Amino acid sequence: MRIGIVCYPTFGGSGVLATELGKALADKGHQVHFITYQQPVRLNEFNANIFYHEVRVTTYPLFDYPPYETALSSAMVDVINNHQLDLLHVHYAIPHASAAYLAKKIVEAQGRYIPVITTLHGTDITLVGRDKTFAPVVAFSINQSDAITAVSQNLRDETFRSFAIEKEIRVIHNFVDTHRFHRKPIDAFRRVIAPNGERILMHASNFRKVKRVQDIVRIFEIVHKKIPSKLLFVGDGPERSGAESLCRELDIFDDVRFVGKQDQMEEILAVADLFLLTSEYESFGLAALEAMAAGVPVVSTNAGGLPEIAIQGETGYLDDVGDIHSMSEHAIRILENDDILKRFKANATAHAKNFDIHRIVPQYEALYNRFLTLA
Ligand code: GMT
């Protein structure tokens, strides 16, 4: 198949998932065309089946807001026609679903049929999409997609609650390459972070408000009093400086490291003992799944789709949003004893296999195939 993938190229989960999907499809022999404004961060290796088409937005003094969506639709039309795409798979509704709708209509007028599959990822529905400046366009373009998928049952239900969607929304859970994430820790790296064998707690995100990173700091403060430990923050974003200030205020800064954006997550996760995710909402929580695949138990909130990927008391614990004390107690319970930690690590590794790339990618292929027979 010749597949066009449209996504955000940044560190966010939707872009990561779309890129990993494209790479997996290319490995299976499909020709994959990424259409986006920048090389996706996880698109870091050469593959003869992968093509990358950069969307360029012409600037002009008249444009206070350069029309990215128009440029994106034009790029889609160009790639559909010049590379004879069989379908377009767009990740994150805004503005990808409406740009795809326009591209679809343009090529239709030229006599070509191109199915559009839209995958909803979370904030495109729950935060940004609901905003009335976007809502009518989001609802319309989702309804115009030939197929709609959501990354969790929770997101599917939220979408139906928020918009008048007239079509079936298929749940295809996010996935992880469990083989790639199952790494041996690099001892030298572990020693740099935890020179005296302390436990290592980790959080990775885009540090947006929805992640409640201050809760992570407060949980660590409690855990740290009982268990010699270090906290590693991976990623960057608007709430990072607030988290740094809180670490200073609580006098734990020497035991916390902010390592910024990293693309080799599997190597960093390999040294972690516990992953913390305190989000107010996660449609899925890909970062938590990647942690589990690396054998790292997860203490998280029970928000959104997180209960669909974790097992209470086995792969970690799920607590109410903001319940810092329960999350701290659970973290301590996992970390205080080597045998318990080992059991949680093994459970996390085993459970992540249910979301292995080789189980999930065929679900997308089966969906694509339904449309190829219509073309
Ligand atoms: O978490 C973010 O803010 C980034 C966002 C994105 O669109 O990249 O992540 C969303 O999509 C991920 C991949 O499907 C999910 O794992 C995240 O849970 C989801 N984030 C939210 O729902 C807040």
TrEMBL record:
Top-level lineage group: Bacteria
Gene3D superfamilies noted in UniProt: Glycogen Phosphorylase B
Pfam families: Glyco_transf_4 (PF13439), Glycos_transf_1 (PF00534)
A molecular function GO annotation: glycosyltransferase activity
SUPFAM superfamilies named among the record's database cross-references: UDP-Glycosyltransferase/glycogen phosphorylase (SSF53756)
Domain Glycosyltransferase subfamily 4-like N-terminal stretches: 11-180
Gene Ontology biological process: bacillithiol biosynthetic process
Domain annotation Glycosyl transferase family: ranges: 194-349
InterPro entries: Glyco_trans_1, Glyco_trans_4-like_N, Glycosyltransferase_grp1, Thiol_BshA
NCBIfam families: thiol_BshA (TIGR03999)
Protein name: N-acetyl-alpha-D-glucosaminyl L-malate synthase BshA
